[in-house]
Amino acid sequence: MSSKNAKKGVIKGKRERYAEKNRSRQGGRNEKKPSQIKAQHAQARRDRRERKPVERSTGENSQYIQWFPGHMTRTKRKIQADLKLVDAVAEIIDARVPMSSRNPDLPSMIGSKPRVILMNKCDLADPRATKKWTEYFRSQGVKAIELDCKTGVGINNFTSAVREVLSDKLEAWAAKGMVNRSLRVMIVGIPNVGKSTFINRISKTSKAKTEDRPGVTRGNQWFTLTSNGFSIELLDTPGVLWPRFDDQLVGEKLAFTGAVKDDVTDTEQLALRLLGYFKQTPNPVFMKRFSLCDEDMELETHELLAFIAKKRGMLISGGEPDTERAAVMVLDEFRSAKLGRITLEMPV
Fold it and tell me: How many CB atoms lie within 10 A of CB 36?
């Protein structure tokens, strides 16, 4: 045996003796295979995510919903760091859940920076409710405008709204002879609320990546638009939620609208909760969509979901209703307003 191989054998023997000694000291704790340890750690992480605070129970079929990927923490720091680069902040919210779709950490993050609220997806919300919310925000001293970024409805009001909230700064610049200076506005909001769609629509480009799911934009991007002889530079930022929903009804509403990834929710339970809303709030569009009568609305939510599955021919072997497939369909049709233009919360 060569001296090199002999040396390897000595080292290997020492390692084996050390491992054996370590196992005896720790009662065989290290006897698990790496795959078993990895699986155990993964299960522990799942248990932590699924841990349900007892005091936050929201009723039958409720579930603890939380989604805060690591990149959101980095985004929050980046937003705070970049605030010094902008003159104002445009906060995009979902008109169907105007309060739940507002990040409660945002006011402390942006401080006294001038702000505009853009109520997007107004085409999916109850127009009467949207008007009340717009009036509510204005009563709070915050400029709010209604938008539908996909069709462009209300998009032309953005420029005038920005000029209005920055009127003092524009006057100060004009007094100094800085007439053609660009305005810089940061676009913020929770995931899947339409930030990138708004930027693509108003800048007439398709540079901002958009998808009908949360968490697509991962980095800050600058875009420039020109209107009426002056320019506005827009800073697009990734969607940011907050680390913990104090009110689980907020998490539930965000899951209804798609701001929380479907992967972290029980889709069937979520659909049952949504059906519970329709049972409490009469909606002729919903009932007509599924050919339901008043007696059908007296069914328990799980029975109603099974009934809808049968109505749509969603069956599995043995003729049993495919409630999982029906749940996905109910959520999709709610999100696309096929069940009516619905607002899930009203101003107090």
Answer: 10
- Residue 33 amino acid letter: K
> To 5 degrees, how large is the angle CA 325–CA 326–CA 331?
105
- Percentage of the chain exceeding pLDDT 70: 72
Report if residue 64 sits inside a domain.
no
Same domain, 46 and 80: no
> Is residue 340 a part of any domain in this protein?
no
Extract the tokens encoding 101: 């779709």
- The band of 116, judged by pLDDT with boundaries at 50, 70 and 90, is very high
Q: Is residue 303, in this structure, part of any structural domain at all?
A: yes
Listed in order, strand segments (DSSP E) in the chain are: 88-94, 115-120, 143-146, 183-188, 221-227, 230-236
What's the total number of domains in the chain? 3
Coil, strand, or helix at residue 277?
helix
The tokens for 278 are 């329709």
Q: Which domain holds residue 225?
A: 70-236
Torsion of CA 222, 228, 142, 124, to 10 degrees: -80
- Burial label for 56, CB within 10 Å (0-12, 13-18, 19+), is middle
User: Based on the domain organization, do 227 and 98 belong to the same domain?
Assistant: yes
The answer on 110 and 195 residing in a single domain is: yes
CATH number at residue 101: 3.40.50.300
- Rounded CA separation 19/31 (Å): 10
- Nearest to 98, CA basis, from 134, 67, 62: 134
Summarize pLDDT for 137-156 with one digit per residue, the tens: 999 999 999 999 989 999 99
Does 59 score more than 90 pLDDT?
A: no
Closest CA to 64 of 325, 250, 242, 258: 250
Q: Which pLDDT does position 37 carry in this prediction? A: 62
Residues 199 and 312 in one domain: no
Say if 92 falls within a structural domain: yes
| Residue owning tokens 């990734």 | 238
Match 């936050």 to its residue by tokens. Answer: 56
